[in-house]
Design goal:
By secondary structure, the protein is of the alpha/beta class. It has two domains: 293 residues, 3-Layer(aba) Sandwich (Rossmann fold), CATH 3.40.50.150; 75 residues, Nucleic acid-binding proteins (OB fold (Dihydrolipoamide Acetyltransferase, E2P)). 31% of the residues lie in helices and 24% in strands. It contains eleven helices and 16 strands. Strands 1, 2, 3, 4, 5, 6, 7 and 8 form an eight-stranded mixed β-sheet that branches. Strands 9, 10, 11, 12, 13, 14, 15 and 16 form an eight-stranded mixed β-sheet that branches. α3 packs across α4 and α6 runs parallel beside α7. The longest helix has 18 residues. The mean pLDDT is 92.
Length: 387
């Protein structure tokens, strides 16, 4: 399979953050048997939960579990905000704001906060200065709130986050409060799969969202969690929400038609050498980051409108480069379909097929619908819309 070079990497300051949070540099920390053992315990807990519809039990009540979660899960998961925020930016979401009010729901060990800080720093030269970044971190575990507060202190102390504030709030979304808020950006990372009834939070989320605000939900790329997110998507559309991304349709999701289907992203990343030590201890090889995401709003903006292209499609499978042909599944306003290009039909107009990857967004002209698929011919133009 052909890949473009990895585009995701931890920020330069991440090892310093790790050292500040765990009190020892990453390479030394991962060599400690106690940390590896606790990561293995969490991994076993999550694998058990992945096969169950029951909410996952609390796992951040102690310092050892928080340190292990930060070292292994927050390290990789923080980068999963990259595509959702990149695509949200295409609507002008960040360019129109001098202040940003963020609600980090289920903040854990600061995963979303780290990801947001890294993303803002990466785009610092092309985004207008946000003079006020006001963050509310909410979690049901007091240890998580303390951990996130320490992450925020590091980021502001190093000047990575600009001027702003942090407020922490004890909140259990299974026992929601009704007080309304006013947040521009709401981040939920690995939260919905831990709730008994995720769809019940939609009204509460609406009460917390500013008029032109957005909600970013990221979940594990597992069958049960992925399908639960698609069911949450369906409930959101029924409740008047708009799916900004990743979908280009507001109607039913084709992936829910068959029990074993779900939809997820898969992005290559530069795995640190010290992280590979933990991977090896777990028997994992995490060369890529797999996750499902939704970006929702209440004002009708869509990624399709932001792109200004007719009939954009999302690549929802790996591109399979077989002998003599390339195949992939795409999904758009008209639904999910298989497309195929014979190698003999490859040319300048459709060369993007050669580097097409899961969750790319493409536009096609002059494709040839057939009974069971869509053929990309020599006269078909295929263009990636988001570099």
């Amino acid at each position: 399979m052909k890949h473009r070079p990895a585009s995701l990497a931890l920020p330069d300051w991440y090892d310093d953050l790790f050292t500040a949070m765990l009190g020892t540099p990453p390479a030394r920390a991962v060599a400690a048997p106690a940390l590896a053992s606790e990561v293995a315990r969490l991994n076993a807990l999550f694998l058990t939960a992945a096969g169950s519809v029951d909410p996952i039990p609390s796992y951040l009540s102690g310092s050892a579990s928080a340190a292990a979660y930060f070292a292994y899960y927050a390290t990789a998961n923080c980068l999963k905000l990259t595509r959702p925020l990149d695509e949200l930016r295409l609507s002008g979401f960040f360019e129109t704001r001098t202040e940003l009010r963020v609600l980090d729901l289920g903040c854990g060990t600061g995963t979303a906060l780290i990801g947001l800080a890294a993303w803002l720093e990466r785009h610092r030269d092309t985004l207008p200065a946000i003079s006020g970044l006001h963050i509310t971190a909410a979690d049901k575990a007091n240890a998580a709130l303390a951990w996130t507060a320490n992450v925020h202190a590091f980021l502001t102390g190093r000047g990575i986050l600009g001027a702003g504030t942090l407020a922490t709030k004890h909140l259990d979304l299974n026992r929601q409060v009704v007080a309304a808020g006013e947040h521009d950006l709401m981040l939920l990372m690995n939260v919905a799969n831990e709730l008994a009834t995720p769809a019940r939070m939609l009204d509460w989320l609406a009460s917390q969202l500013a008029e032109r605000g957005a909600v970013v939900i990221i979940e594990p790329a597992l069958r049960l969690a992925g399908r639960a997110l698609l069911e949450l998507r369906a409930a959101a559309v029924d409740a008047g929400w708009t799916v900004y991304a990743p979908c280009f349709r507001q109607s039913d999701c084709p992936a829910l038609e068959r029990e074993n289907d779900w939809c997820h992203d898969d992005v290559l990343w530069t795995r640190p050498a010290w992280y590979a030590v933990l991977d090896e201890a777990l028997g994992n090889v995490k060369h890529s980051l797999k996750y499902s995401f939704l970006v929702l709003n209440r004002h009708g903006a869509t990624l399709g409108d932001a792109l200004g292209a007719s009939q954009p499609r999302r690549v929802v499978s790996d591109a399979l480069h077989e002998k003599g042909r390339t195949r992939a599944y795409l999904c758009g306003e008209t639904g999910r379909f298989s497309c195929m290009r014979n190698t003999r039909d490859a040319g300048d107009a459709n060369r993007d097929v050669d580097v097409m990857q899961r969750y790319d967004v493409v536009h096609m002209d002059h494709e040839h619908p057939r009974e069971h698929d869509v053929q990309i011919g020599a006269d078909t133009t295929v263009r990636r819309l988001i570099p």
